[in-house]
Amino acid sequence: MKQQKIWFVVPYALWIVLFVVAPLVLILYQSFFNINGQFTFGNYQNYLTSNVYLRMTFNSVWYAFLITLITLLISYPAAYVINRLPNRQFWLLLVILPTWINLLLKTYAFIGLFSQNGSINQFLRFVGLGSHQILFTDASFIFVAAYIEIPFMILPVFNSLAEIDSSLINASRDLGASSWQTFLHVELPLTMPGVKAGVQAVFIPSLSLFMITRLIGGNRVITLGTAIEEHFLTTQNWGMGSTIGVVLIIAMFIVMFATGDRQKKKGGRAK
């Protein structure tokens, strides 16, 4: 029996070592070498003392915050409504359906909508408002990123809402609470684990977006994700790119710790 369990564990252990631990170790190792292959701490010093990298860090956090906030403000009411609809699994499937489409294809679809000769500007010219620069702006980048991330916020929130025991809601109303009071004091606290999971699923990837940033934001939106792409593909400074990667990994763990469920352990000696 124990041998069978070991054989089941081995594939998972190999997967974690090869595709999780090994890349993390390689990125950390590479971050201590400069462009000439010499061991140095200069990459971290350069990152911490450079106004350019610090501004990129601020931009990345700010954009990720806005994307997460917009996604949450849209997803929570949507999940709340879907949870109360008949055939709710069908409506949830319609929300998840866009995630099955390739990310690059969705991005190019928005380029077709936002470009100077795109559908939106054609409509604006038709109604006499003239064309506007929609593509390569902060607003277009945030809009597209939020649209793509919405399903990843709706799913955990929907699951948390679906798991709420209806007897708790009925008890709240029997005690005289209004719908708003029931939502505020019963439903919202019980869905916080789903909200936190959604924040993790949206905020962390949003910190390191680069393809959407390049194609939708252009040169107006500069983040750590685009900096990593630049160092690995253009300047070939893998050490600096790895250093930024280490910073993003640290940021990921900070976000996971801040939004994780930390239950206080209560205990005492029996008397």
From TrEMBL:
What GO terms describe the biological role, i.e. biological process, of this protein?
transmembrane transport
Tell me which GO cellular component terms the UniProt record holds: plasma membrane
Q: Pfam families, from UniProt?
A: BPD_transp_1
Topology relative to the lipid bilayer, per the entry, is: Multi-pass membrane protein
Where does the protein end up? Cell membrane
What are the alphabetically sorted keywords of the record?
Answer: Cell membrane, Membrane, Transmembrane, Transmembrane helix, Transport
Report which superkingdom the organism of origin falls in: Bacteria
Residue ranges constituting the ABC transmembrane type-1 domain according to the UniProt record: 57-259
Q: What is its main location?
A: membrane
Instruction: State whether keyword Phosphoprotein applies.
Output: no
Where are the bilayer-spanning segments? 12-32, 61-83, 90-114, 134-158, 197-217, 237-259
Into which family does the record put it?
Belongs to the binding-protein-dependent transport system permease family. CysTW subfamily.
Q: What is this protein called?
A: ABC transporter permease
